[in-house]
Design a protein that fits this description.
The complex is a heterodimer of chains A (about 110) and B (about 110). With about 110 residues, chain A is mainly β. In chain A, strands 2, 5, 6, 9, 10 and 11 form a 6-stranded mixed sheet that branches. A 3-stranded antiparallel sheet of chain A has the order 3-8-7, with no helix packed on it. A two-stranded antiparallel sheet of chain A has the order 1-4. Chain A starts with a strand and ends with a strand. Chain B has about 110 residues and is an all-beta fold. The radius of gyration of chain B is 13 Å and the shape is globular. The termini of chain B are far apart. The chains are: A mainly beta (about 110), B mainly beta (about 110). At the A-B interface, strand 5, strand 6 and strand 10 of A face strand 4, strand 5, strand 9 and strand 10 of B.
């Protein structure tokens, strides 16, 4: 069965420092990976998806099939990046099989 | 476009009562998904529906839980005879046909006393 692991429940960094939120997955096929973000008092929303290969709000994520990872990175964290981040996997090309990790709460300190 | 609307936002029930959570998908979206988030856990898929059809209910508990998405009106997640373990945040999401990007509602937080 597919599984998404986010090993860090909590992560704190100082403003301006680099940040990396880890995500590992287990799936034998070709998955599609996503990062969703939930800011305080807001809804869960899509941050980025690996097939887009784009940078959103300074964040990037590269799918590493060898390491089965999809870590989220930003070179210089900002206070407004503080939020809950969820890594998610779709294995059938359909959202009905979207599997989420348990989430990482990122806090960017001033 | 109001996005995905869920109500109630907060619901308190006593053990044995019924809980009904409603979800109106984003305009133009015909696919609805329900997820449950237990305390300290991630989002767990429950059920995927299209109008008048349950497409995938592999994540639904076998008893007491049911979902529908009628031709008219919102999708409803119904939990009968609630127990304390049902206390969680229930999120609804919608997508357009064939898409695999979800738009989420704000969630409904169920507390069972």
């Amino acid at each position: 069965a597919q599984r998404v692991t986010q090993p860090e429940k909590l992560l704190s960094v100082f403003k301006g420092a680099p940040v990396e939120l880890k995500c590992n997955y287990s799936y034998s096929g070709s998955p599609e990976l996503f990062w969703y973000v939930q800011y305080s008092r807001q809804r869960l929303q899509l941050l980025l998806r690996h097939i887009s290969r784009e940078s959103i709000k300074g964040f990037t994520a590269d799918l590493n099939k060898g390491e089965t990872s999809f870590h989220l990175k930003k070179p210089f964290a900002q206070e407004e990046d503080s939020a809950m981040y969820y890594c998610a996997l779709s294995f059938s090309g359909s959202a009905r099989q979207l599997t989420f990790g348990s989430g990482t709460q990122l806090t960017v300190l001033p | 476009n109001a996005g995905v609307m869920q109500n109630p936002r907060h619901l308190v029930r006593r053990r044995g009562q019924e809980a009904r959570l409603r979800c109106s998908p984003m305009k133009g979206h015909s696919h609805v998904y329900w997820y449950r988030q237990l305390p300290e856990e991630g989002l767990k898929f429950m059920v995927y529906l299209q109008k008048e059809n349950i497409i995938d209910e592999s994540g639904m508990p076998k008893e007491r839980f049911s979902a529908e998405f009628p031709k008219e009106g919102p999708s409803i997640l119904r939990i009968q005879q609630v127990v304390r373990g049902d206390s969680a945040a229930y999120f609804c999401a919608s997508s357009s046909s064939g898409a695999n990007v979800l738009t989420f509602g704000a969630g409904s937080r169920l507390t069972v006393l």
